[in-house]
Structures are given as structure tokens and as C-alpha cells.
Design a protein that fits this description.
heterodimer; A: alpha+beta; 3 helices; 33% strand; B: mainly alpha; Rna Polymerase Sigma Factor, Chain: A; 72% helix; 0% strand
Chain lengths: 126, 411
């Protein structure tokens, strides 16, 4: 079963050195997950100041500069993992370095047959 | 009523939730398992009459429930594609023998408990699911016990089951390294159920014994299945508290304090069982917080009256509890024990310090304890002020009435 791990935190909570170390550590974890066949995708995200939000209302497009919600803790990165169950997802979420400063939200991914096929095709291509 | 029907009814009371627990594992779905369990008991009445009672009734019931359910699903699968999932899972399964092994069936109850108390579910959901799915209370009974409406509880249970399904919460006994944390969650649910029954947080009656009974029963089930000193410690704690049930309230439903209780009304068998469990848990090498609290309760249970209580031991057990971390409520209880050991002035000084820290300034029992020590010291005017503060903060009717009586005594 696939889970998305969403990493929330305060953007200014990290020094540049800490950020580099975090990326190193996270990449190690990704390599470990890949070796176990549990890795699907992951990435840090650029600062929320680069975010753009789109809404279509009555066929008209509204563009807002900024994230969906103005909160102190922002979405800063994500993992998509493929594991047996929620306990395994929780164990991996606890090992993601930013969990120490922010919050990791676990969301089970709703899979449809067509989307699963597409993911497989994409993996074969890459 | 026929003998077989009577036997099935007895088995239903004792075994239906265990059969249900196994069916959840085999069918992978709470709702299907519930239906299958009922179908199995209905089938038993019919079949055992003609074919005789099987050697292992529980295994028979599990097996019958499973087959009936799969059969029904096969028949309806054409119309309902969402059930196809359950069928696919069945096709991959080994035939019965191993699945119905006695050890595995026993473990299913544990699986059910750990799933209902999974840390990804919030506490009110854990409690509702445990009472409904593990204890087999109806939604109406759970609602009544928690003084809320059946739709509220039903919604909590539906949401809980839906999260178990869609987030794929595993139906498993946690691994060794996760076990301590997971047991803690289960124990905290059981103790919450017990406390809600023992000192209901609101409402008219002091205790609701259906809840205390269920909590103790859960403790016993868990003791059978898990070798853990804190499981024994918590069960002892609940038994020892519950042993005072008959002495805690008078004929009119009024609260009686520990020191004023008629100790001949205490339930001796429960105390004896609690004593054995405390001894066992204390000897295990890892003494936890529930065990220490049970030891405190036991020290009270073993005393003939308040003045002959071993306050020395009680104070030192509170000291031990406080080594686990700061806790103002435990400090308050320790202060009361200290007052019994060294006199009310000593206790009062400590309580004043605790109140000055601000943690317990809204806790009615802190003001009530202070008032009681002032009353003993003959400082009626100060006692009155504290009783009034306690009265303002108290929620439970019998507690309010008790405080009003005390207030009259010092006025």
C-alpha cells in the first residue's frame, strides 16, 4: 500500500548547515527505502514564498500568490512510500529528519487501477 | 429451551467476541466479521442439535462463520464489486487447519485489542471501538455509559472502522520493539474506561459498575494473553479500587471518604486477588506506574482504619511515583499522605506550595484537601473559603453535596 508522507515545519527553523545535513540524511534514508523496494518518490520543496494557488470558480480562473493556507508550519517536502501497512509507514515517518523539528503527516494514497498502471509505466520509462 | 440452545447461549456470552476477533482476521473486515459471527451462532443451534456438539466449539464457529460469509459474498459479488476485494483475499488463503489453531485464535483477541487501541486513532475513538468491538457492548450501551447520544458514538465507531480500513491499520500484535508503547496505549484505554465507571466525570451517580466491570474483564483477558507486569499492576489497581465500591456511597448515594468508610464492606476476594497481582508485578523486576499505584491502594486495603494505615510506606511509594516525572496531582496525594504521617500543618504547607505554583488552582480536589486540613486544625474561617472554592469547581453532583455538608460543619 502506498502512503504519502507530508513534511510540515517552520521554514526559518533550519540553519543552512542543518538544511544540508538534513538533505544528506534524508537521501540516505531514500537509498535504504529504495533497496527495500519501499521507495516511490520524494523531494524537498522550494520555499512557500514560491507557491501559487489556483481556483476555478464559474469557469473563471483565480490565481493567488502563496500557499493554500497561511500557517506558521508549511509543507516543505514529501515522500511517497510503498509499504505493507500503517505501522510500517509510521516507523518510516519517525525516521525522517524533519520530524524532529516539524510534523510528518501520513496520508494513505487512494489508488485506482489506471493510476497504478501509469505509475508503473512511468517507472519503466525512467 | 433445548440443551443445545442453552449451551449456545452460554457460549455466545463467553465466546462471541473471540469468534468475532478471529473472523476479522480471516475476512479482513469488521462489518463482514460481525455478520458472519451472528450467522455462525445461528447455524450452531441448528447443526449441533442433529450432529452433536463439536470438540472445539470456538474453532467450529469461526470456520462456519467464515464459510457462510464467503458463500454469501460470492453470491452477491456479481452485484457489488466492492466485495471482490474480500474474495480475492480468501482465494490466497491456506485451507483451515493452521488458521484455526488454538494459539492463533487466542492471539486474535490481542490483535483486535491492539487494532482498536491503535495510536493513529484518537482516544475517544479507541475507547468507543474497544467497548463496541472487544467487549461487545451495543452502541446504545456505550452512549449511556459516556452520557452521550447513540448517534455520536455510532459516528465515532463508523469513522474509526473506516480509518482502520482505508489507512490499512494492521491486524497484528505489535513487534517486540513497539510493544511497550502499544501496551501503554491499551492500558490507558482500559484505565480510562475504568475511571469513567469508577468516578464518572459528570452526572448524578458516583459509579457506573458496568464500565468498571468491563475494564476489569479486559485487564483479565489481557493478563491471560500477555506477560507484562504493568498489565497485572493495572488489573490489581482496578480490583483494589473496586473492592471499596460498596463502602464508597451511603444509602442515599452520598459519597463517603476513605477514612470514614465501613471497611467490613470492602470486598475481601478482590483485595486478595489484588494483593497477589501486586506481589507478582513487584517481583517482575520492571515496576511501572500502575503497579506502584496498586501498591498504594493495597496499603490502604490492608489497614484496619485510617490511623493504623502504613502512611510511611504510602509516602515513600508516592516518592517513587514522582521519580518518573513531575506530576502535581501525585504531589497533592503525597501531601495528603504526609499530613496523615506528620500532621496537618506539614501537609498544609506542601499543598499551599503546590497551589502557589498554579498547576492545580482549578482542580477542586486540591482546594477540598486544603479545606480538610484547615478544618482539622480548627481554622474554620479559612476552611470555609477553601470549601467554597472547591464547590465552585466541582462537577459531580455527589461531590458537590459532600462539599456542601462540610461547608455547613465549618460555618
Amino acid at each position: 500500500m502506498k502512503y504519502m508522507l507530508l513534511i510540515y515545519g517552520q521554514e526559518d527553523a533550519w540553519t543552512e548547515a542543518e538544511r544540508m545535513e538534513c538533505i544528506e540524511e534524508s537521501t540516505d534514508l531514500c537509498e535504504e527505502l529504495l533497496a527495500k523496494g519501499q521507495y516511490v518518490a520524494s523531494s524537498p520543496l522550494h520555499s512557500v514564498t514560491t507557491a501559487t494557488s489556483i481556483r476555478i470558480r464559474n469557469g473563471k480562473r483565480f490565481v493567488t500568490d502563496g500557499p493554500f493556507a497561511e500557517t506558521v508550519e508549511q509543507l516543505g517536502g514529501y515522500y511517497i512510500i510503498d509499504v505493507e501497512n500503517l505501522d510500517e509507514a509510521m516507523a518510516i515517518a519517525s525516521r525522517i529528519p524533519p520530524a524532529k523539528k516539524g510534523t510528518v503527516e501520513i496520508r494513505p494514497i487512494f489508488e485506482t487501477a489506471r493510476i497504478s498502471d501509469l505509475i508503473e509505466q512511468a517507472q519503466v520509462k525512467s | 429451551m433445548s440443551e443445545v440452545r442453552q449451551l449456545v447461549e452460554t457460549l455466545y456470552v463467553r465466546e462471541s467476541r473471540r469468534v468475532f476477533a478471529s473472523l476479522v482476521r480471516l475476512l479482513g473486515d469488521f462489518d463482514s466479521a460481525e455478520e458472519a459471527m451472528h450467522e455462525a451462532f445461528a447455524a450452531a443451534v441448528e447443526k449441533w442439535e442433529t450432529e452433536g456438539v463439536p470438540a472445539n466449539p470456538r474453532a467450529w464457529l469461526v470456520s462456519a462463520g467464515r464459510f457462510k460469509r464467503i458463500d454469501a459474498i460470492r453470491r452477491s459479488a456479481r452485484f457489488d464489486s466492492s466485495k471482490a476485494d474480500i474474495l480475492r483475499r480468501q482465494d490466497g488463503l491456506q485451507p483451515d487447519e493452521k488458521e484455526l489453531d488454538v494459539g492463533r485464535l487466542e492471539d486474535d483477541t490481542l490483535r483486535l485489542i491492539f487494532t482498536c487501541c491503535h495510536p493513529s486513532l484518537n482516544e475517544s475513538t479507541q475507547v468507543a471501538l474497544t467497548l463496541r468491538e472487544v467487549c461487545g457492548l451495543t452502541t446504545e450501551e456505550v452512549a449511556r455509559a459516556f452520557l452521550t447520544t447513540p448517534p455520536t458514538i455510532a459516528q465515532r465507531i463508523v469513522r474509526g472502522k473506516s480509518k482502520i480500513r482505508s489507512a490499512n491499520i494492521p491486524y497484528e500484535i505489535p513487534s517486540v520493539d513497539e510493544l511497550p508503547e502499544r501496551i501503554e496505549a491499551v492500558l490507558s484505554v482500559i484505565y480510562l474506561v475504568f475511571n469513567e465507571g469508577y468516578s464518572a466525570s459528570s452526572g448524578d451517580a458516583v459509579t457506573r459498575s458496568d464500565l468498571t466491570g468491563e475494564a476489569i474483564r479486559l485487564g483479565r483477558v489481557l493478563m491471560e494473553l500477555l506477560d507484562d507486569s504493568e498489565v497485572a499492576g493495572l488489573t490489581a489497581l482496578m480490583l483494589l479500587h473496586d473492592s471499596r465500591k460498596a463502602a464508597r456511597v451511603d444509602m442515599d448515594g452520598e459519597l463517603i471518604l476513605l477514612e470514614d468508610q465501613d471497611r467490613s464492606l470492602w470486598h475481601r476476594d478482590a483485595i486478595q486477588e489484588g494483593r497477589q497481582l501486586v506481589a507478582k508485578a513487584m517481583a517482575s523486576g520492571s515496576v511501572g506506574l500502575y503497579t506502584i499505584q496498586a501498591a498504594i491502594s493495597l496499603a490502604h486495603a490492608e489497614a484496619e482504619n485510617s490511623s493504623s494505615t502504613n502512611w510511611e510506606r504510602i509516602v515513600s511509594l508516592y516518592d517513587l511515583l514522582l521519580t518518573a516525572g513531575e506530576n502535581p496531582v501525585i504531589e497533592l496525594n503525597r501531601a495528603v499522605a504526609l499530613a496523615m504521617r506528620d500532621g496537618p500543618e506539614v501537609g498544609l504547607t506542601v499543598i499551599n506550595t503546590i497551589l502557589a505554583d498554579g498547576h492545580l488552582k482549578d482542580y477542586h480536589l486540591a482546594h477540598a484537601a486544603k479545606a480538610d486540613l484547615l478544618r482539622r486544625l480548627g481554622q474554620k474561617r479559612e476552611a470555609k473559603t477553601s470549601y467554597l472554592q472547591a464547590l465552585e469547581l466541582a462537577q459531580l453532583e455527589p461531590e458537590k453535596r459532600f462539599l456542601k455538608r462540610r461547608l455547613q460543619e465549618v460555618s
